[in-house]
Amino acid sequence: MESKVRIAIIGGSGLERALESGEEKRIKTPYGEVSITIGTLGGEKVAFIPRHGRHHEKPPHKVNYRGNIWALSQLGVERILASNAVGGIRDGLKPGDFVIVHDFIDLTKSRPLTFYDGPKVVHVDMTEPYCPELRKVLVRVARRLPVRVWDSGVYACTEGPRFETPAEIRMLRLLGADVVGMTSVPEVVLARELGICYATVCVVTNYAAGMQERITASEVVEIMRKAVPLLIDLFEKSISEIPKERNCSCANVLLEAQH
User: Fold this and answer.
1) Gene Ontology cellular component (predicted)?
2) Is 73 annotated to bind ligand?
3) pTM score, two decimals?
4) For the chain, which terminus, N or C, has the lower number of CB atoms within 10 Å?
């Protein structure tokens, strides 16, 4: 019998080279076919999904979030480690910093946000949207790496694909956001709806609009390129330190959800 894949990574371009001897699988879901690479990392069998596609052809608002999370669930995945490129809003954040966020603000507009569109309606608890057990491991391991890490933060998710305006960033600062990106929602919500632990490492690639003269796509790409080896190292070491048994409430969220 083929062994179950317990851990998955969802990330951007460049992370696929983290896996050793990867094999591509195509999984049919109610939301379309999803391509997943399965290999090994940190001594563990790991599934990897490039969020934006192999050639970065899917913009943030067109990513097949439901298909991706459903496919991972079909593989038996219990934990997802993700990475996101973000703009820094909180004072003190600098490009290249890692932020292990603990909460989010959803400002998306047109994305399918749930698996429960009816007739079954489920309201899941999002008091701790990012798994505290996984976050603890990521923070502990990241602090051993040559990178500045922030152990908490609020992620504001905008629709994209454009960057935000200075007025929007001022609003987000007032709302308590620390970083801004375009991809963590609904990914984190969908994982919670299927009882999968989810945590993400946000890489600050730029100061948010109005906090620097202008934002260019090239600077974002360059910071992420430099961050990829550190992300791979972080994920590899974290995977080897994740407890085999889950000690968080993520797996039981559906038992406690309001129907």
Assistant:
1) cytosol
2) no
3) 0.94
4) N
